[in-house]
Specification:
- The complex is a heterodimer.
- The longest helix of chain A has 23 residues.
- Helices cover 35% and strands 21% of the residues of chain A.
- Chain A starts with a helix and ends with a strand.
- In chain A, strands 1, 8, 9, 10, 11, 12, 13, 14, 15, 16, 17 and 18 form a 12-stranded mixed beta sheet that branches. In chain A, strands 4-5-7-6 form a 4-stranded antiparallel beta sheet, with helices on one face.
- In chain A, helix 9 packs antiparallel against helix 11, helix 15 packs antiparallel against helix 16 and helix 16 runs antiparallel to helix 17.
- Chain A is globular.
- By secondary structure, chain A is α+β, with helices and mostly antiparallel strands.
- The two termini of chain B are 29 Å apart.
- The longest helix of chain B is centred in the middle third of the chain and has 37 residues.
- Chain B contains 14 helices and no strands.
- Classes of the chains: A alpha+beta, B mainly alpha.
- Chains A and B meet through helix 1, helix 8, helix 10, helix 12 and strand 15 of A and helix 11, helix 13 and helix 14 of B.
């Protein structure tokens, strides 16, 4: 609230009277103070370490055997069926177990399932489950619990589509579970690692309020801004390295990072590029980054003018300088994109065979003229109002202007951007897409003609055919071939630009070890963590 | 009473002719604070008018090296002048470095952006205030002079508007205007483009009107107004020739105060992302864009526009304070 000038004047008058009396001394101490402040800011900017005393104070404040993880946000839904945010998944990932996990390079790793077998026709998956797994209430994990969990997942909610190809789930011989599919799905094992697919106890009640899992940590206390979990000494894969795991839920990444600086927490996961770059420059913390498959999708509607003309799409591609965007917005973190969601993260399927055109604004201008836009284009670029996306929009607008594409940027609050499917309707937009463990999910989500979120309205028979092949073939070579073809077609005539892939970041005290930041931050595991 | 006797009853008028304006200016510039305030405002006004000529780069030129720290040159130059006083007269001493305020992470020159942002804040806050003053003055005079039901009606509506905080009211109105679909080039589109300006006007009309109305109530009972009424002068003549001049002192003070609040409001709306669209070099927007992690990388990209907002608001406040005192003195 602003003071009225009258009030300001009145307080000023009072102050002047008192200030006159003690003016001499404060001036000197003021100078001292500002010199100290200046020095502090200079050294801070230059990346000086904490003094040994400061560092010792930080260490002393750390509790023995406790790992404190800070998040810039709080969980909302803790029923595995509806959980999706990093904070929610991290909570579930600590208390429950998945059948299978993926590591930081997206390779499958065993969890509850220690081995898996696939029938020759690719329709029957037999998973062997670890021995001696118990729930936190002391009961033994049975095959029925797993069957019950997957019946729940495939009958309802956001996972119903993902598991639509499961014909039945049943207990097999001994400690095995058998999944029978209605059609081959080369990514099925990855689907089992889905964020929602934690194993619950059969007929569990009050899911999302009571947490009876098999995981490495038990819920001790949950208050609005903090979850305290204690180690599960009976964990089948070995007792966790710390006695207590605490999740702190802050309002923003900024507060979480400040808590790390102040020594109140040990680990911060998930932050923007600039914050990570600044924290890394301080030289006090251990930093980790993992390339993800998440990306900002810049897309042009392909089913109506001007995007329906392949030359226009190509002009946009030619006018975009990916290296400049990567350097200035990503600060070199993550990876440069090649206009297809099959990025370097999916090393096996990623291809650099087809050269990317440009950057060449003049050529773009000529192509636009050929397509019937000799005076260039005037378009509105819709973008969710998030700092990094608005920055991308501004950079793209500046680059495209050189090719005669004049952009009005329309930042919208996320709730507005996604409301009433507005984002699917507009001609030109930037949509952030989070990390997925397999490339096929992106293709199925937004690139096939009948995809639910086909925001570019792209409909290309050849691409559809290739997506179908890649999604069903069990022949790895054929699959790789199909993915390479899709990448070629998208560069030649696709309506999308993917300038970069995000990196996932983790920053922690250098006394923390055994934490591997996962591309999906919420899937980072803490049971192997130790604090020294 | 005869006609000539009536016409001798004149109001004590403010600032009629060059003499009283001169006295006013002298009174304004006599106090160091208000002189400083006036100089600051005139400085920014000059930037607003000639910014495009002064700024070394365009607002959205991203070809500059990113993350260039601001040059520490001023101190260095002072030292050189100290060593060699002859340099005091060399142009080189006064030339700004390539990026005196540094560049932001996108490689845009912050110095140029701060300068180029001046004109939009003056345009929006200045014209917004002007419209508010014109409409508010008219409504205030009208309501105050007419009295009765008309006065009651207008005052109650304004009281209702005044009950809402200016920022909240502005956000609501902008939210509505922004969601109206408009044809490019149409009258509605022009309105939408100047939405912030209109919102400033709308938010401040009731405040100005209230001040003018209360002065009017006081003035209308004076003898010279009654004399004019008896003379049979027209309604417009009485409002604008008899009452209005007596309202001017209060109005000038209020207008300058409104202007400073308007600057703050425009900056706040820009910060909240509803006033200007990126990539416009709006000060509030610049502060918003360079928060969080960016602030740790390029603090100057946030600090200079923030300092500009602060300096201008302080300048306008000092000036308006000076105006108030000068007005009282010349009365």
């Amino acid at each position: 609230m602003l003071l009225s000038v009258k009030e300001i004047l009145m307080t000023q008058a009072q102050k002047t009277r008192t200030d006159e009396r003690r003016a001499r001394l404060p001036r000197r101490s003021f100078l001292k103070l500002s010199a100290a402040g200046l020095a502090a800011s200079v050294f801070g900017a230059a990346g000086f370490d904490l003094t040994p005393q400061q560092a010792a104070a930080v260490l002393a404040r750390r509790q023995a055997g406790t790992l404190r993880v800070a998040w810039g946000g709080a969980p909302v839904a803790l029923d595995p069926l509806n959980a999706s945010a990093d904070t929610e998944i991290a909570f579930l990932n600590a208390i429950y177990d998945y059948l299978l996990d993926t590591d930081a390079r997206s390779e499958l790793v065993p969890r509850l399932a220690t081995a898996w077998e696939i029938s020759d026709d690719g329709l029957t998956y037999t998973l062997t489950i670890a021995d001696g797994v118990t729930f936190h209430d002391g009961s033994e994990l049975t095959m029925d619990d797993i069957v019950w969990t997957f019946e729940r997942l495939r009958s309802d909610g956001p996972t119903a589509d993902l598991y639509a190809d499961i014909e039945r789930v049943e207990p097999g011989e001994g400690r095995t579970v058998v999944f029978t599919l209605s059609r081959p799905n080369p990514d099925f094992l990855y689907n089992l690692t889905d964020n929602h697919a934690v194993i619950l106890k059969a007929n569990a009640q009050n899911i999302g309020q009571e947490f009876n899992g098999t995981g490495p940590f038990k819920l001790q206390e949950y208050i609005p801004d903090r979850a305290t979990l204690s180690a599960n000494a009976e964990y089948f894969a070995g007792a966790p390295g710390v006695e207590t795991l605490e999740f702190f839920y802050f309002d923003s990444v900024e507060s979480a990072v400040n808590a790390l600086r102040g020594g109140q927490v040990d680990v911060v996961l998930r932050m923007d590029n600039a914050t990570f770059l600044a924290l890394g420059g301080e030289g006090v913390f251990a930093t980790q980054q993992a390339t993800t498959s998440g990306h900002d999708l810049v897309r042009l509607r392909a089913d109506r003018e001007p995007g329906s003309d392949e030359r226009v799409r190509q002009a946009f591609r030619l006018a975009t300088d990916r290296q400049a965007i990567f350097d200035r917005l990503q600060f070199g973190f993550g990876a440069i994109g090649r206009d297809s969601p099959i990025g370097p993260f999916f090393a096996r399927y990623y291809s650099e065979e087809t050269p990317l055109p440009g950057p060449d604004p003049e050529a773009a201008r000529r192509l636009l003229a050929e397509a019937g836009y000799p005076d260039g284009l005037e378009m509105t670029l819709y973008v969710p109002n998030l700092a990094d996306r608005v920055a991308l929009a501004q950079t793209l607008a500046a680059q495209w202007e050189a090719a005669g594409i004049r952009i009005t940027i329309e930042p919208q609050e996320e709730a507005v951007y996604y409301a009433d499917n507005g984002w699917l309707e507009v001609d030109l937009a930037i949509t952030p897409w989070g990390h997925r463990p397999v490339a096929q999910q992106f293709l199925d989500l937004y690139l096939r003609s009948d995809a639910a979120w086909n925001e570019s309205h792209f409909s290309d028979e050849e691409v559809d055919r290739l997506i179908e092949i890649a999604g069903t073939t069990l022949d790895e070579d054929e699959r790789t071939q199909a993915y390479h073809e899709i990448q070629r077609i998208l560069i030649e005539r696709g309506p999308i630009i993917i300038p970069y892939f995000f990196a996932q970041f983790g920053v922690m005290g250098d006394y923390v070890s055994g934490v591997d930041v996962h591309p999906f931050a919420g899937r980072t595991r803490f049971h192997t963590a130790t604090v020294s | 009473m005869t006609h000539s006797a009536l016409s001798r009853v004149r109001p004590a008028r403010f600032s009629r002719g060059a003499g009283s304006i001169g006295r006013f200016l002298i009174a304004l510039l006599r106090s160091p604070q208000s002189a400083a305030g006036t100089v600051i405002v005139l400085f920014f006004l000059a930037l607003a008018l000639f910014g495009a000529q002064i700024a070394p780069y365009s607002a959205n030129d991203q070809s500059n090296p990113p993350r260039q720290p601001p040059t520490a040159a001023p101190l260095e130059r002072l030292r050189r002048v100290w060593d060699d006083p002859g340099r005091l007269f060399e142009a080189e001493t006064y030339r700004l470095g390539p990026y005196p305020f540094g560049t932001d992470t996108l490689g845009r020159d912050v110095f140029s952006r701060v300068i180029l942002g001046t004109s939009s804040i003056f345009r929006v806050a200045g014209f917004g205030t002007l419209i508010a003053v014109v409409i508010g003055t008219f409504l205030g005079l009208f309501a105050g002079y007419q009295g009765g039901l008309i006065d009651e009606g207008i005052t109650r509506v304004f009281d209702a508007l005044l009950a809402l905080p200016a920022l909240l009211l502005a956000l609501v109105i902008l939210g509505i205007i922004r969601n109206i679909e408009t044809e490019p080039g149409s009258f509605q589109a022009a309105l939408a483009d100047n939405a912030v300006l209109l919102v400033i006007a709308l938010v401040y009309v009731p405040i100005v009107a209230r001040v003018v109305r209360s002065s009017t109530l006081e003035v209308k009972t004076r003898a010279f107004v009654q004399a004019a009424q008896i003379r049979g002068e027209s309604w417009g003549y009485i409002l604008f020739r008899e009452i209005f001049p007596s309202v001017i002192p209060a109005l000038v003070v209020e207008a300058s105060l409104r202007f400073s609040y308007a600057i703050f409001l425009v900056a706040s709306l820009g910060f909240l992302g509803v006033a200007a669209r990126p990539p416009s070099p709006d000060w509030g927007l610049m502060v918003n864009e360079n928060r969080g992690g960016y602030y740790q990388l390029t603090p100057w990209a946030l600090e200079y526009p923030a300092a500009a907002i602060a300096l201008l608001v302080i300048g306008v406040n000092l000036m308006s304070d000076g105006i108030r005192r000068a007005v009282q003195k010349s009365e």
